[in-house]
Amino acid sequence: xxxxRRNSHSNLHVVSLGELVYPISxxxxxxxxxxxxxxVPxxxxVPxxxGVPIPLWxxxxxxxxxxxxxxxxxxxxxSNLHVVSSGELVYPMACVVVLLHVPLRRQRHYLRHSDCVxxxxxxxxxxxxxxxxxxxxxxxxxDQGAHLCVVDESNEHMMSVWDCARxxxxxxxxxTNESVLSVEFNPRDSGSIITSGKSHVYFWTxxxxxLTKKQGIFGKYKKPKFIHCFVFNGxxxxxxxxxxxxxxxxxxxxxxxxxxxxFQLTQQTRAHDGSVFALSRRRDGAVLSGGRDRRLxxxxxxxxxxxxxxxxxxxxxxxxxxxxxxxxxLVGTTRNALLRGTLSAGFTPxxxxxxxxxxxxxxHPSALLFLTxxxxxxxxxxxxxxxxxxxxxxxxxxxxxxxxxxxSKDGRFIMSNSGDYEIL
Length: 424
Fold this sequence. Notes:
Layout: E1 13-14, E2 19-24, E3 32-37, E4 69-70, E5 82-83, E6 89-93, E7 96-101, E8 106-110, E9 117-122, E10 129-133, E11 137-142, E12 147-152, E13 158-163, E14 168-174, E15 180-186, E16 189-197, E17 200-207, E18 210-215, E19 227-232, E20 238-242, E21 246-252, E22 263-270, E23 276-281, E24 287-291, E25 295-299, E26 305-310, E27 318-323, E28 329-333, E29 338-342, E30 346-351, E31 358-363, E32 369-374, E33 378-383, E34 388-394, E35 402-407, E36 414-418
Antiparallel strand pairs: 1-2, 2-3, 3-4, 5-6, 6-7, 7-8, 9-10, 11-12, 12-13, 13-14, 15-16, 16-17, 17-18, 19-20, 20-21, 21-22, 23-24, 24-25, 25-26, 27-28, 28-29, 29-30, 31-32, 32-33, 33-34, 35-36
């Protein structure tokens, strides 16, 4: 929701289909563009294809012919790309949660957030989705569907467990003064929860209204500055990915006080040059990792390297990984791109966008095309019919961010202006 006018110029246009096109920003550098038809009302319901299960989000949802979105938030978010039961991708973009049907290029949207969506969790039935926005909720995790665990972004990073059916808070506790990057229920035990983040990994026990934690001890291994992500393997052990580029294996120990499992650090595996940003367990039990080095690696159950692929530099580092049909993988990147492909055939983009604030927008004088620019000094040409990025180029001729764009009358030339008042 919204329109950016306060410090922007020439950013509201009508394109040939009668749609309004303009940028919005929610107070942080997150790019988002909107096209709204002037003659088509937003529907109060969404047609549901027969025989296809549709995620049960609360109204309103809209079709892509009403409100297509451009872009994806991967630069500073984690675990925010999933595949639901309908086969659609679900991911956040600014204040909107997008459901994208890739083959049909059709979008649906959840529009009830009032600030940037920072996290997503998908119910085990893959029909229901929990989403949290910046104004309160940060990271979330789910058990077998009955409960939702939430960690907010307050100074104490309050951690709470909720009854999903009743919407009731069952337990709450101060978790840590350090940043929390991920939280998840142990799939083998709904009374066990793990959180990780800056300089910590905590193993929690939940019972009634009480939440108690036990800190992971690194012992002879170097303590990393950040534990970015973790995943459970088939044996119930926990694999964590950290800022040192390592995958650490935390093995289940004998049940301790109260009959709860304990975890001991037993193995360190060098995985990436730079931070490990994402870990994912495939349906066959193998583990995938992605890192700052733009490499996506496949590991055996014993963490032996099996295969790898390096993403092109223009897409940035791997931020999150999800499984598609068959051996297809879906990857979200730090440069706000969504990719699909395989380790053997490589990856191609399905969603791309700016990596910083969008400041300028100009529609083509005759074709259904429009240009955008912004703080990332990228000039992007978009197809307004297919809702896709035609091309993107870094305007190195500017020494500052780009603020304005304009087409020549015949559509052959483009003029741009920058923050230091240069014109190209």
